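Quick log. Single chain, no ligands specified.
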Amino acid sequence: MTPQSAATHIEAALRALASGLQAAPMRAYMLKQFAFLGIRATPRREALRDLPKLSGSRA
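-> predicted structure:
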């Protein structure tokens, strides 16, 4: 898997979990310095765990 295709898979997995209701307080907590998708840690970890690993990566 190329880095570009891995990034595409990661983005698709995370955007499927996006929550505008959660994103607003996350953004406020960081003083509006960053954009957030509003995904809590546990669902984010579960979604990324199922993605194919990049060859040569350590995890």
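Residues 1 and 53 are 8 Å apart (CA to CA).
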